[in-house]
TrEMBL record:
It catalyses: zymosterol + S-adenosyl-L-methionine = fecosterol + S-adenosyl-L-homocysteine + H(+). The keyword S-adenosyl-L-methionine applies. This is Sterol 24-C-methyltransferase. It comes from the Eukaryota. GO terms for biological process: ergosterol biosynthetic process; methylation. The lineage of its organism: Eukaryota, Fungi, Dikarya, Ascomycota, Saccharomycotina. It comes from Maudiozyma exigua. One of its GO terms (molecular function) is sterol 24-C-methyltransferase activity. Residues 76-371 form the SAM-dependent methyltransferase Erg6/SMT-type domain. Residues 1-22 are annotated as: Disordered. It holds the Pfam family Methyltransf_11. Belongs to the class I-like SAM-binding methyltransferase superfamily. Erg6/SMT family.
Length: 377
């Protein structure tokens, strides 16, 4: 894409975001934010997200989704961000759970662990690739006292992230900028550390995305990532496997889920030295990472988790679908909201099936180092 095309696309996306979400984006979250949308723009955003997820899984359909990654991901997060915040909170990722551990504590621990593995230190300049509404960045800045630039393709999330950072008094440590992780515009060798949490799975090519990260990382710097991948057990020619994978792609706005080998090779091909390569979901944990989506009350850890668990569980999701469908019928929620909750439902089914069968992991941890001497690469 030429520089002019990029500028034009950004301007169009920024204008559309303003039209859809309005001003003062931080002040409303979840259902209250949903009902404040511009109804026509919301319909357009839902159509843009779903137009290429039409049930087809052939190479041609896949190619179209790969080519459209930027617009369709932008549209996906335009329509799901309020639901994510309503159901999950302001960190949009999964995590491991210890028995008895509260949901928010487990989420924070997952973020601290990545910061630790990336060796983030006080004063480091860190890039958060695909930063959502900045939940992990706020936590990691507090944990380490580093400075983070959160990069995101979605204008609505950037505005929210800025609002939350200011509200938390962290504006001196955090910046949020619009950008595409397939074309990072920072100077080479800028960042001490880079991390990405469940974001680069939206890339049409992991290798091209990691190449960009390699470029902006200082020599000797570390890149740590929780990657979404299909595991070694996945067989693309197995219909059941492909179904699970497609449900995840559709409901999470991912053009193509790659396998763990593809991710590992991509890092190495860019010149990274892979120092940690571990599937954190493959630990026989007593409480599985996907428990909030299961509806199995036996896993609920503390009283404070009941609200989150209810909203994300099977029955809670049915309740939300019914509520959203009623709100849509009476004109409170914009048309298309039900289609979004239906897609999120497919995602939840695919994620639980993928988790139970270990065909899929949302926490493939890679810690990769850019060599100090990069003259050979
Ligand atoms: C599942 S969310 C994870 C957000 C965040 N890491 C967290 O854990 O809260 C994926 C994020 O990747 C961002 N993203 C997707 N494609 C992108 C792209 N091409 N460039 C930059 N960000 C992108 C999305 O806008 C979204 O914020």
């Amino acid at each position: 894409m030429s520089a002019e095309e990029t500028t034009e696309l950004r301007q169009r996306q920024a204008n559309f975001s303003k039209e859809l979400h309005g001003d003062h984006v931080g002040e409303r979250t979840g259902m209250s934010a949903l009902i404040s949308k511009d109804k026509t723009a919301q319909q357009e955003a839902v159509a843009k997200y779903l137009r290429l997820w039409d049930g087809k899984t052939d190479k041609d359909a896949e190619q179209k989704r790969l080519e459209d990654y930027n617009e369709s991901t932008h549209s996906y997060y335009n329509v799901v961000t309020d639901f994510y915040e309503y159901g999950w909170g302001s960190s949009f990722h999964f995590c491991r759970f210890y028995k008895g551990e509260n949901f928010q504590a487990a989420m924070a621990r997952h973020e601290h662990y990545l910061a630790h593995m990336a060796d983030i230190k006080e004063g480091d300049l860190v890039l958060d690739v695909g930063c959502g509404v900045g939940g992990p960045a706020r936590e990691i800045a507090r944990f380490t006292n580093c400075n983070i630039i959160g990069l995101n393709n979605n204008d609505y999330q950037i505005e929210k992230a800025k609002w939350y950072a200011k509200n938390a008094g962290l504006q001196d440590h955090l910046q949020f900028v619009k950008g595409d992780f397939m074309n990072l515009e920072f100077e080479p060798n800028t960042f001490d550390k880079v991390y990405a949490i469940e974001a680069t799975c939206h890339a049409p090519s992991l290798e091209k995305c990691y190449e960009q990260i390699y470029k902006v990382l200082k020599p000797g710097g570390t890149f740590a990532v929780y990657e979404w991948v299909m595991t070694d057990k996945y067989d693309e020619n197995n219909e059941e496997h492909r179904k699970v994978c497609y449900e995840i792609e559709l409901g999470d706005g991912i053009p193509k889920m790659f396998t763990v080998d593809v991710a590992r090779d991509a890092l190495k091909n860019c010149g990274f030295e892979v120092v940690v390569d571990k599937d954190l979901a493959d630990n026989n944990d007593q409480v599985p990472w996907y428990y909030p989506l299961t509806g199995e009350w036996k896993y609920v850890q503390t009283l404070s988790d009941i609200g989150t668990f209810f909203r994300t569980s099977y029955f809670g999701r049915k309740f939300t679908n019914l509520m959203v469908s009623t709100m849509e019928k009476v004109g409170l929620a914009p048309q298309g909201s039900v289609k979004v909750t239906a897609a999120l439902e497919e995602a939840a089914v695919g994620l639980v099936a993928g988790g139970r069968t270990k065909l899929f992991t949302p926490m493939m941890l890679f810690v990769a180092r850019k060599p100090l001497d990069t003259t050979e690469n």
